[in-house]
């Protein structure tokens, strides 16, 4: 926790209304200003108490406070270093430690996620009968089970996809972990859209996890290891631009140079590689492929790590609005986090649930047929909250909507059913 | 630092979830927006209903423990500075908009509702809440009532006191009462608004809603220096025009705002003026032409006009962010809040510049030029020994300068703890004693936010002006006489 970064805070409080936990509890120590004050207390000699650690843990890391701050406080860096300090200096209860080890030992590893497919599929199929058991699970494990999406068939992406028509650029694509295993159709759509817009697309094998989950969890050394491997994979592939379609991954990848700052060689290598969000990159490239009509009403959800961390708000809206026949609706209180926040809904299920319910109500009030977002975690979280309220909404990634328009598909082709839908499909 | 018995009683009132006793958590409440003064409260309570507030205050009263009310903690005079021996009553969980009544043009809200949230709730009916402090998205209406907050648009529309129709409050003895503008007799509501938490805690506020004007136009004018900008302000007012707002920022304030929000103000400006006109369309058009001409006559070298909300927001972005933006160009700063007659503006600004040079302390100026309300931002490095004291000295001399020109020590931020010691420069002993009589009528035990507004703590029952023996608090070493 860098005291200079802490001192940038002038205690004006402009961050308070942006903060989801302040919205929930209205307590100073669960606001960005209060958490920075706790950090200040700690660097000035107060030991890291369990209460202090609890307030850092309760932060979603949504970073809505960063654009809200007139003094330019780097809360993103502050909270990551606070989390690292918690990992270093705070001993969690045994059950919590075990659960964290499970999550951090599973999600960043596509191979392990894949190995889980069969048991998960069985569990999903059996969910109606397992319900009473799920309800009795500790809340965190219950959250994990409830969020698991229906498992699609794996899609193998070619290592290189030629540009359609004249080649305008060569780009790499980051396939991610959860995106790759649970939402392979999103990656396929991303590659197709890029190719149709004239990009030669390279999908290097061996890229693995980008390190976002670890970085946001305060596991800095682990994050740096993942970052180096990701950089090396794209260097080998010979691209200098990498397109990312998951908001959390993109936010971390864009800050590789900061993450690897201790190592001048690697931070220099990180700076030579440019990471861009899909919508951001397509807006720069400019459209060439024909947009076919897609008569559908869409609510666009701002993923925090896209809107707040990367400042990408206008581009996805513009590219959706440019599709003929598509009606774009705004979600009220759009800047407020849905509660997914990476691993937050696993570690802080109660708060995540409450934020999810608020977001679901706002999304439903927009009256759209389809919820579109650029982060797998958000769509899982919101769809699950909508279902909890006894309603339903179809969800899709921005890439899938664009892909459907470029390929002239019908709107009916769009929209995965949300988590928990598999059981209904089986019944029908 | 308070008796365990009181903490237990408070926990019984708000529930364990509404009581903070952990020392690390308590310290996050040690100051409001003015970080220069700090005190960790003995306990913090977070009531959720007016009845809970009343019960908390009654418990304090019975135990003889002082209490301080706090909203979002954005105040700039330390009005919500806690007492180490007292209870901090935080109203952040009292945040419901209870009703919006477009037919009555009013809304009933709880004190923890933010200023901007009232306007958002009223917007579907074409109405808004007029007073607009720059911190409107975070500051609470309860705090606005306590400090009689202003904002850029007060020039035309008035302060909080002009927009509050009634208040439900908990008296310092724990009774719930309503004060209403319609009450016959003395204007107790007027006395309560701006009383900085010394006469009780507001628990419901009925605010007046104002119809959105038919037309709004915002002009950004860049001047070579503050003096020519000041000339334009005087010319506009002399022409009989009452703009919704006239705001000025000097070069240093522009630099800060630019660094913070990239507001894109004209390069090379020694001062910018934001002039907002609103009202019937025909009037706005006519006044706008006149203002443009007057700015040009006063040497404005660039004029930008925003007629749509997005461009208007872009112009205002720099102004609204100005205070906190100073954090970009200085490690720490003090915000001052003095008032001078408009005609004295050029002289006072020159005086501030001289002070800045004499002390070697940078001062950025942001001000509501239309009503002569200055907000000098005194910059300093809190890591440098003695710098804080030097900034304090500059800040105090700026107030002296305002007073010497027939002005006031506060326009809209309140006296709080920060300017209590300047009160005797503005008021004689008899005036201060008379104010104490009012305070004692509400708070005989002296438990509601003691130590604010007035420089010397005083117990009620004492004969004003005649002190035969040392004050009991002075005798016990808890207070000292200046």
From TrEMBL, chain A:
What is catalysed by this protein?
(R)-lactate + A = pyruvate + AH2; glycolate + A = glyoxylate + AH2
According to the record, how does the cofactor bind?
Binds 2 [4Fe-4S] clusters.
Cofactor(s) listed in the protein's UniProt record: [4Fe-4S] cluster
Judged by the first EC level, this protein's enzyme class is oxidoreductase
Instruction: Note the superkingdom of the native organism.
Output: Bacteria
Keyword Iron among record annotations: yes
Q: Which residues form the 4Fe-4S ferredoxin-type domain?
A: 1-29, 50-81
Gene3D superfamilies linked to this entry: Alpha-helical ferredoxin, Divalent-metal-dependent TIM barrel enzymes
| Signal peptide from the UniProt entry | none
- Protein name, please? Glycolate oxidase iron-sulfur subunit
Please give the InterPro entries that the UniProt record associates with this protein.
4Fe4S_Fe-S-bd, 4Fe4S_Fe_S_CS, Cys_rich_dom, Glc_ox_4Fe-4S, Helical_ferredxn
| GO function terms (MF aspect) | 4 iron, 4 sulfur cluster binding; glycolate dehydrogenase activity; metal ion binding
EC assignment: the record states 1.1.99.14
Keyword Nucleotide-binding attributed: no
For this UniProt record, give its keywords in alphabetical order, as a comma-separated list. 4Fe-4S, Electron transport, Iron, Iron-sulfur, Metal-binding, Repeat, Transport
What Pfam families does this protein's entry cite?
Answer: CCG (PF02754), Fer4_8 (PF13183)
The protein's role, per its UniProt record: Component of a complex that catalyzes the oxidation of glycolate to glyoxylate.
Q: Which PROSITE patterns match?
A: 4FE4S_FER_1 (PS00198), 4FE4S_FER_2 (PS51379)
From TrEMBL, chain B:
Does the UniProt entry include the keyword RNA-binding? no
- Show where the FAD-binding PCMH-type domain sits: 37-212
Q: What are the GO MF terms of this UniProt record?
A: FAD binding; oxidoreductase activity
Q: Which UniProt keywords apply?
A: FAD, Flavoprotein, Oxidoreductase
Q: Which cofactor does it need?
A: FAD
Cross-referenced Pfam families: FAD-oxidase_C, FAD_binding_4
The cross-references to InterPro entries, in alphabetical order and at most eight, read: FAD-bd_oxidored_4_C, FAD-bd_PCMH, FAD-bd_PCMH-like_sf, FAD-bd_PCMH_sub2, FAD-linked_Oxase-like_C, FAD-linked_OxidoTrans_Type4, Oxid_FAD_bind_N, Vanillyl_alc_oxidase_C-sub2
Spell out the PANTHER family in the cross-references.
GLYCOLATE OXIDASE SUBUNIT GLCD (PTHR42934)
What is the protein's given name?
A: FAD-binding protein
Originating organism: Sphaerisporangium rufum
Write the gene name: glcD
């Amino acid at each position: 926790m860098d005291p200079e970064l802490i001192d940038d805070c002038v205690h004006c409080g402009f961050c308070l209304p942006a903060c989801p936990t302040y919205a929930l509890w209205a307590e100073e120590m669960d606001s960005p200003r209060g958490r920075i004050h706790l950090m200040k207390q700690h660097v000035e000699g107060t030991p890291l108490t369990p209460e202090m650690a609890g307030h850092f843990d309760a932060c979603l890391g949504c970073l809505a406070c960063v654009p809200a701050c007139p003094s330019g406080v780097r809360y993103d860096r502050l909270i990551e270093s606070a989390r690292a300090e918690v990992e270093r200096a705070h001993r969690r209860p045994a059950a919590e430690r075990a659960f964290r080890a499970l999550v951090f030992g599973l999600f960043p590893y596509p191979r392990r996620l894949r190995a889980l497919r069969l048991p998960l599929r069985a569990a999903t199929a059996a969910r109606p009968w397992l319900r009473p058991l799920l309800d009795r699970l500790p809340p965190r494990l219950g959250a994990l089970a409830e969020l698991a999406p229906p498992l699609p068939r794996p899609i193998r992406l070619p290592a290189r996809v030629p540009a359609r028509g004249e080649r305008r650029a060569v780009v790499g694509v980051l396939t991610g972990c959860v995106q790759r295993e649970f939402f392979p159709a999103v990656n396929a759509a991303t590659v197709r859209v890029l190719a149709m817009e004239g990009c030669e697309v390279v999908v290097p094998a061996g890229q693995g996890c980008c390190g976002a989950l670890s970085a946001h969890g305060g596991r800095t050394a682990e994050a740096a290891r993942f970052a180096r491997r990701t950089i090396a994979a794209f260097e080998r592939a010979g691209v200098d631009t990498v397109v990312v379609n998951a908001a959390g991954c993109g936010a971390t990848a864009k800050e590789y140079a900061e993450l690897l700052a201790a190592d001048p060689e690697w931070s220099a290598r990180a700076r030579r590689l440019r990471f861009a969000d899909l919508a951001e990159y397509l807006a720069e490239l400019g459209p060439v492929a024909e947009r076919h009509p897609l008569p559908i009403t869409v609510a666009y959800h701002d993923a925090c790590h896209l809107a707040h961390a990367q400042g990408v708000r206008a581009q996805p809206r513009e590219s959706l609005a440019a599709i003929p026949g598509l009606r774009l609706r705004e979600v009220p209180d759009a800047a407020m986090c849905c509660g997914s926040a990476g691993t937050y809904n696993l570690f802080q299920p109660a708060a995540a649930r409450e934020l999810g319910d608020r977001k679901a109500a706002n999304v439903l009030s927009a009256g759209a047929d389809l919820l579109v977002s650029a982060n797998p975690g958000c769509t899982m979280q919101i769809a699950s909250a909508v279902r909890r309220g006894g309603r339903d909404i179809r969800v899709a990634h921005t890439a899938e909507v664009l892909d459907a328009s470029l390929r002239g598909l019908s709107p009916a082709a769009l929209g995965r059913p949300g988590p928990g839908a598999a059981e209904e499909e089986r019944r029908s | 630092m308070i008796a365990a018995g009181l903490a237990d009683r408070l926990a019984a009132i708000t529930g364990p979830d509404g009581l903070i006793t952990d020392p690390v958590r308590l310290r996050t409440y040690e100051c409001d927006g003015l970080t220069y003064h700090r005190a960790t409260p003995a306990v913090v309570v977070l009531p959720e209903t007016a009845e809970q507030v009343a019960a908390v205050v009654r418990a304090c009263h019975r135990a003889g423990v002082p209490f301080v009310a706090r909203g979002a903690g954005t105040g700039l005079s330390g009005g919500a500075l806690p007492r180490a021996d007292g209870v901090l009553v935080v109203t952040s969980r009292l945040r419901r908009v209870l009703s919006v009544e477009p037919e009555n043009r009013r809304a009933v809200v709880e004190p923890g509702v933010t200023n901007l949230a009232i306007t958002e709730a009223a917007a579907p009916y074409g109405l808004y809440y007029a007073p607009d402090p720059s911190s409107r998205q975070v500051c609470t209406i309860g705090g606005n009532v306590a400090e009689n907050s202003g904002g850029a648009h007060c020039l035309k529309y008035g302060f909080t006191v002009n927009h509050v129709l009634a208040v439900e409050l908990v008296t310092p003895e724990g009774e719930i009462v309503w004060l209403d503008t319609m009450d016959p007799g003395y204007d107790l509501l007027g006395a309560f608004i701006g009383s900085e938490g010394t006469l009780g805690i507001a628990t419901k506020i009925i605010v007046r809603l104002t119809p959105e004007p038919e037309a709004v136009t915002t002009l950004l004018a860049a001047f070579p220096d503050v003096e020519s900008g000041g000339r334009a302000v005087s010319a506009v007012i002399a022409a009989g025009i009452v703009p919704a707002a006239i705001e000025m920022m000097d070069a240093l304030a522009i630099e800060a705002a630019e660094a913070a929000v990239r507001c894109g103000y004209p390069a090379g400006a020694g001062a910018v003026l934001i002039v907002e006109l609103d009202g019937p369309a025909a009037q706005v058009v006519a006044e706008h032409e006149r203002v443009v001409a007057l700015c040009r006559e006063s040497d404005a070298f660039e004029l930008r006009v925003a007629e749509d909300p997005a461009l208007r927001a872009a112009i205002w972005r720099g102004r609204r962010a100005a205070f906190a933006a100073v954090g970009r160009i200085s490690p720490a700063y003090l915000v001052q809040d003095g008032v001078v007659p408009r005609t004295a503006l050029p002289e006072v600004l020159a005086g501030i510049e001289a002070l800045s040079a004499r002390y070697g302390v940078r001062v950025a100026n942001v001000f509501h030029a239309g009503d002569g309300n200055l907000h000098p931002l005194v910059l300093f490095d809190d890591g440098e020994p003695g710098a804080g004291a030097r900034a304090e000295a500059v800040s105090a001399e700026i107030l002296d300068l305002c007073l010497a020109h027939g002005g006031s020590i506060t326009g809209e931020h309140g006296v709080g703890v920060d300017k209590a010691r300047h009160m005797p420069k503005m008021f004689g002993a008899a005036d201060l004693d008379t104010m104490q009589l009012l305070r004692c009528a509400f708070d005989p035990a002296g438990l509601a936010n003691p130590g604010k507004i007035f420089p010397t703590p005083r117990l009620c029952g004492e004969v004003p002006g005649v002190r035969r023996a040392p004050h009991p608090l002075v005798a016990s070493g808890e207070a000292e006489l200046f």
